[in-house]
Design brief:
The complex is a heterodimer of chains A (238) and B (189). Chain A has two domains: 4-77, Ubiquitin-like (UB roll) (Roll), CATH 3.10.20.740; 100-232, Alpha-Beta Plaits. Chain A is 24% helix and 15% strand. Chain A is built from six helices and ten strands. A five-stranded mixed beta sheet of chain A has the order 2-1-5-3-4, covered by helices on one side. In chain A, a hairpin with a 6-residue loop joins strand 3 (51-54) and strand 4. By secondary structure, chain B is of the alpha/beta class. Chain B has a domain at 16-105 and 141-175: Rossmann fold (3-Layer(aba) Sandwich), CATH 3.40.50. Chain B has seven helices and seven strands. The longest helix of chain B has 13 residues, at 75-87. The radius of gyration of chain B is 19 Å and the shape is elongated. Classes of the chains: A alpha+beta (238), B alpha/beta (189). At the A-B interface, loops of A face helix 4 of B.
Chain lengths: 238, 189
Amino acid sequence: MKVTTLTINGELVSASPGTTLLEAARENGLDIPTLCAIEGLSTVGACRLCLVEIEGSSRLQPSCVTAAEEGMEVRTDSDRLQRYRRMALELFFAERNHVCPVCVANGHCELQDRARDVGMDHVRVPYRHPDLSVDITHERFGLDHNRCILCTRCVRACDELEGAHTWDLAGRGRNTHVITDLNEPWGEALSCTSCGKCVEACPTGAIFHKGSTVAEMEHRRDRIRFIAQARGKKEWTP
Amino acid sequence: MSAKSKNRTAPKPRPRIATVWLAGCSGCHMSFLDLDEWLFELAELADVVYSPVADVKEYPENVDAVLIEGAVANLDNLELLKKVRARTRLVVAFGDCAITGNVTSLRNPLGGPDSALHRAYVEEVDGNGSPPSDRTTVPELLPKVLPLHQVIKIDAFLRGCPPSPAAIRELLEQTLSPPSKSRSKKDTP
């Protein structure tokens, strides 16, 4: 099998053809922080946390959607990247009303984890404090737009694994938000099978089991990889 | 500051620390009180010159370090915060309301103070409520609740809702114990 050889943070690593820089790094024990990427779903490069520097290119590239190529020289942890990652995280917190101490996902939140990882102790830009709604029309699940970071994991889980495509994005720029069916209340979205994959995929407290209160919502995110893998390898086919 | 370095044999002046309670639930101060018997040790190390748990009316001059709990929600908070900054060397944003606005800032998406008062006194009450008509007995609300660092310069951030007693203790010990660094440079003639 042909192998791609490249350098990440000065170390020579090899990757099988078709892997992304993120996969190549992780296969070689180097972690790159991510939010929108989740094992089992396609990658979209939405959160910008996994940006890396590639020698010879002045533009930073999202490693989750950039193919590993022969001879590439990649840096994943320069001062500049760390500065940008912290700024991206601060912007996430400023964009909506996260208010961690009263969030269902407090303590089990990937946004919170990433902020802690980079040592974010305060947000330097002003908070926007938008007036956003909570949709609890579904029988079993709830959607809190205040906590959503627009990673589109729910959209992809619903489309790629469940095949229902109940979720999508509407609006542009800061008005972008997730919707169910044709922007109907979730409880009235006929395409929803109530499978709960969107709940398990959500990195924050935006999608949750109804009835969970502060810090009680623990997403089982490994279920997404489990389902994708079982389906890919036809483990469930007799 | 002036009489500090006159005599080498004079005992070192005791550090002067303070705690301030702005717009928060007092949970950070409860966590501070949860330091229990270590508070006796703290009393050995420093003078607590202003605090909601000490009966002092006016924030004093020449304070070495202050922990400020709560966000900036009204004119009183704003006035006191500026005074505290002017009179204190090390200002610590103490807990999540001070750092992010947190629960205190949940009124911000509602719009200005009038909408917040309407929500609290009219929409969320049983029977007929009305917002307080006399706006002079309680401090005037600011248009938006702000974290401290949007108003004054902050020297350290102590996260948590509330910060754990262990974290508070560590910060105070770090602030009070190394006399070799920032304090002594100024104090040496």
